[in-house]
Amino acid sequence: MSDPAHHALTLSHKRVIVLGSTGSIGTQTLEVVAHLNALHEQGMHATKYEIVGLAAGSDHEALFAQASKWGVQHLALCGAGQSPPAGMSLRTGEQAATELVDDIDCDLVVGAIVGIAGLRSVLRAAERGTDIALANKESLVAAGSLVTRVAFESGSRLLPLDSEHAGIWQCLAAIDCHHPSPPMHSPECVSRVVLTASGGSMRNKTREQIEHASVQDALNHPNWDMGAKVTIDTATLINKGLELIEAHWLFGLPADRLGAVIHPQSIVHALIECADSSVIAQLGVPDMKAPIQYALCDAHRPPGCAPKLDVTKMGSLDFIEIDPDRFPAIGLAMLAIESGGDAGAALNAANEYAVHAFMNSTLPFGQIDRCVQRVMERWDTRAIRTLDDVLDADRRARVLAEEYCAVKGG
Alpha-carbon distance 244 to 242, whole Å? Predict the structure, then answer.
């Protein structure tokens, strides 16, 4: 197994595959790469990045445009697409992204495909020993024990792209400067790690208002411009629950050393409570380019392209305890962590099914978290040893969620 620190310092040419390249994280990753390559040309950054593969869901026009701009030959599209321009090869179908990772040698895979659909390609990158800049939280929520075990055995590093996990990473690196790169188990001097949640579009709503929120209401996020699925998840706070499960696997934290608070300004991304009562926080403007750059640069800090935070103009910072009656998702995530096995896969699948039902107007918004709760109450937790175990759990949980939605749908 190679020494990650030595690898980070000596690699001057980095080949990158971006999975989910046409989405929000994917497009911002390409913007950051363009910025870093410009710094490289000026002699201000040691590494030059080459995009060697791109994968998208169904938007073949955007994918082909990106490939033309970046000179990328190897592409993948989950759905059916038109023939690519001359000089490009296109893999299609559900296995397309995994085939891309399998076929093309690279140094870093950016995993930004949303949902359980991103698991196969992330796991394949881990099997190959390739570093993974991970935005697809469902990979660790549904298959954390499998992905982390495979990554450890192969030498693959899991580098978090979520702003909250990047914040934890930076805070832990400040405490333990000898281990700046994941996998990073929190030292004993860390009492608790706290993630912040914007609260999404429902943060000031009563439970009664939450019950009957429309799709438009739920998508009206006050701070971020994200895809529909993630935006809905922030409104129920299940997104923060998924991130807590992800933090459990990324940083070796049990449920009793994890927490979350609502922070409407989205300036503080993570806090670490230390045994000596000190609290270390990571701050930044609500922009994904900074955590993306931190991962791409192996925790080094060249000049950034994200907006700078002016502390004299950021105003007050509020931190609000999460009401479990309005937002039961946090408790459900803690239950999944404590249950272990395939409980995370069940939670994730039930939520995906319920969100899809809500967006198709077949389930009220207030029933999304109740659907997840009902599936968790009926869940018979089993161990995860293989990908098939994860996919079986995903299938069984969706059956339970379908049964619930058939009764509660409106």
Answer: 5
- Nearest CA to 379 out of 358, 348, 410, 408 is that of 348
| Sign of the dihedral defined by the CA atoms of residues 256, 257, 258, 260, in that order | positive
Q: Is the pLDDT of residue 8 over 80?
A: no
Q: Read off the pLDDT band of 115 (50, 70, 90).
A: confident
Q: Which long-range contacts does 312-318 make (Cβ < 8 Å, 24+ apart)?
A: 314/265, 314/267, 315/265, 316/265, 317/263, 317/265, 317/267, 317/268, 318/263, 318/264, 318/265
**CATH class of segment(s) 4-161:** alpha beta
Q: What HEC string does 142-203 produce?
A: HHHHHHHHHHHHHCCCEEECCHHHHHHHHHHHHHCCCCCCCCCCCCCCEEEEEEEECCHHHC
Strand ordering across the sheet containing 279-283: 258-262, 190-197, 268-274, 279-283
Beta-sheet strand order (sheet of 13-19)? 89-92, 74-77, 48-56, 13-19, 108-111, 131-134, 158-160
pLDDT single digits (tens) 55-87: 999 999 999 999 999 999 999 999 877 899 999
Percent pLDDT > 70 in the chain is: 94
Token pair for 57: 């869901």
**Phi, psi angles (nearest 5°) of residue 249:** -80, -35
Q: What is the pLDDT at residue 6? A: 39
Residue type for position 130: T
168 contacts: CB under 8 Å, gap ≥ 6: 160, 193, 195, 247, 250, 251, 270, 272, 282
Cβ–Cβ < 8 Å for 237, 200: yes
Architecture of domain 174-408: Orthogonal Bundle (1.10)
d(CA 251, CA 266): 22
What are the Cα distances from residue 194, in Å, to 36, 191, 247, 255, 262? 31, 10, 10, 11, 10
Q: Where are the domains of the chain?
A: 4-161, 174-408
Beta pairing, strands 89-92 & 108-111: unpaired
> Positive or negative CA dihedral for 18, 23, 26, 27?
positive
- The pLDDT score that the predictor gives to residue 1 is 36
The CA R_g of the chain, rounded to the nearest whole Å, is 20
